[in-house]
Write a structure and sequence with these properties.
The chain is of the alpha+beta class. Helices cover 42% and strands 25% of the residues. The protein has four domains: 122 residues, Beta-Lactamase, CATH 3.30.450.20; 103 residues, Beta-Lactamase; 82 residues; 146 residues, Histidine kinase-like ATPase, C-terminal domain (Heat Shock Protein 90). A hairpin with a 5-residue loop joins strand 6 and strand 7.
């Protein structure tokens, strides 16, 4: 069938024996590109092909298959594959079981490479050419199928991805079960006879889809739409990535649109959870650092003063005053114990120096750092503009560099003028001796004559305008020392602040 030749990724079918072994009955020709083994290898190796699954994902994959076999449901599971050439790829496996009379289970499904989709939407667009090539080359794959047209259609209906062929005005010549069931139809015929105007109200991105179809027909270029918002027949909001290209039937009819869509709702949920986790972790880290500041300055300094005063009084006390001496000795002993506790807390809260050096990209760093900052200012209260073309990356200790950038930017946020958006510009330049990262903001600024040059010494505070307001973040000298970083600050009230961070590559 023509549509089979246009499917991307790996199409497979295997039979699982009661003893747990599997035997492939069909594997499409692109298996080696995505998985790392050829179709011929799959026929010979059977279940051994699963050794390419990443060890950390293997158990989750097996559990998902076992659950699917037990419940008789289709599954869609993402996991990592280690290619034979060493590359790490993300794939999406979609399959469903079919129970045979002798107790064996036949699984039919696909494996799609989703590495690019896992990274960024820009990478997804870059894969359009690859998708076009896949659609073009799939015409030769039909020769590999020995089944009848009816069996092929049945196999397509078992795929947990949507496949359709339609005209630009939504006249469908083909749709598999996943696709027409999405809209609540029981057959392709019902979809073809339906009033599509009543269905499109459930597609929030309908205008964008219509425009994309028109451009596809006029340009002939493959089109990809990311996170298309659809309300299914059950009323649930779901998201799909859709790839479409022009399809020319062999009968010479007019061009139609061939599309394939797979669900990305779980990816969006995982990304939202990651951002919430980073924001929560940053907030907890901020509270811990503030507590460290209290221990270092606001508690230890008074304790040291009490110890000094106690020692002075003891040295000048009347030698005959035994009661006074006993009281002072008890006070000195108690104060010494408090000081020991403070020192122990300081050691516990101090950063660990034995950290591995890794490659950090400034773009990724700023994306993560600004998540907790937006939580404090609101989405409309802060704008960070950056240019890292001069130096895009550095080898350093990621956690310490994140903390250092978060400290400084959070302090700048506290210089935000009331009722005005805070804009921070960040630029990097590479020099023979290291990298200079410059940060400029349009905040309220700091009176350097009053507060002195802030050189980020041990637990030194970057104060706000109110002399009694000590909400600034401490920058640990120990962390700056490990990063081999120096910081220079120039600030003027009413004119904002300019900060230079001089970093050394730690390779």
């Amino acid at each position: 069938m023509e549509v089979v030749s246009e499917l991307p990724g790996i199409i497979f079918q295997y039979i699982a024996e009661p003893d747990g072994s599997i035997r492939f009955t069909y594997v499409s020709g692109k298996a080696e590109d995505i998985w790392g083994f050829s179709a011929e290898d799959a026929y010979k190796m059977g279940g051994q092909v699963l050794k390419n699954i990443h060890p950390d994902d293997m158990q989750r994959y097996r559990d998902t298959i076992a659950h699917s076999n037990k419940e008789g449901i289709a599954i869609s599971v993402p996991f990592r594959v280690i290619h034979s050439d060493g590359r790490l790829r993300w794939v999406q496996a979609n399959s469903s079981p079919n129970y045979l009379e002798d107790g064996r289970i036949m699984r039919t499904g696909t494996v799609i490479d989703i590495t690019e989709s896992k990274l960024t939407q820009d990478n997804i667009r870059a894969s359009e050419q690859e998708a076009h090539t896949i659609f073009r080359d799939l015409d030769t794959r039909i020769q590999q199928f020995s089944k009848t047209r009816e069996n092929l259609l049945q196999a397509l209906d078992h795929l947990p991805i949507g496949i359709f062929i339609k005209t630009v005005d939504n006249r469908f010549s083909y749709a598999n079960k996943f696709y027409y069931s999405l809209w609540g139809f029981r057959s392709l015929q019902q979809l073809q006879q339906a009033n599509w105007d009543s269905v499109r109200s459930n597609i929030r991105d309908w205008g964008q889809i219509t425009e994309t179809d028109r451009k596809l027909v006029s340009s002939g270029k493959t089109a990809t739409q990311v996170d298309v918002n659809i309300i299914d027949n059950a009323g649930n909001t779901r998201y799909f990535d859709v790839t479409k290209c022009l399809f020319q039937p062999n009968n010479g009819g007019e061009h139609e649109i061939l599309g394939i869509l797979f669900e990305t709702t779980h990816f969006r949920s995982a990304d939202a959870e990651r951002r919430n986790y980073i924001a929560d972790l940053s907030e907890r880290n901020l509270k811990l650092e503030r507590f460290s500041q209290i221990i270092s300055h606001q508690l230890r300094a008074p304790v040291t003063t009490v110890m000094a005063v106690t020692n002075w009084i003891a040295g000048n006390l009347d030698a005959t005053d035994d009661n006074g001496r006993i009281l002072l000795e008890g006070l000195a002993d108690a104060t010494k114990k408090i000081d020991d506790v403070v020192r122990d807390l300081n050691d516990v809260l101090a950063p660990v120096q034995a950290q591995s050096v890794e490659l950090v990209r400034f773009n990724d760093l700023i994306e993560d750092v600004q998540i907790p900052l937006h939580k404090e200012t609101g989405p409309d209260g802060l704008e960070i503009i950056h240019d890292f073309s001069g130096a895009a990356e550095i080898h350093t200790v990621p956690k310490y560099l994140y903390n250092l950038f978060h400290h400084i930017l959070a302090t700048n946020v506290r210089q935000k003028r009331k009722g005005q958006k805070l804009t921070i510009g960040i630029k990097s330049e590479r020099y023979p001796e290291g990298i200079d990262v410059t940060m400029r903001d349009n905040g309220a600024g700091v009176d350097m004559n009053t507060y002195g040059k802030l050189t980020m010494e041990l637990f030194q505070m970057y104060h706000s305008q109110n002399e009694t307001d000590h909400k600034g973040l401490p920058a640990s000298k120990k962390q700056a020392g490990i990063l081999r970083a120096t910081i220079d600050i120039n600030s003027t009230p009413g004119s904002g602040t300019v900060i230079h961070i001089y970093l050394n590559d730690l390779r």
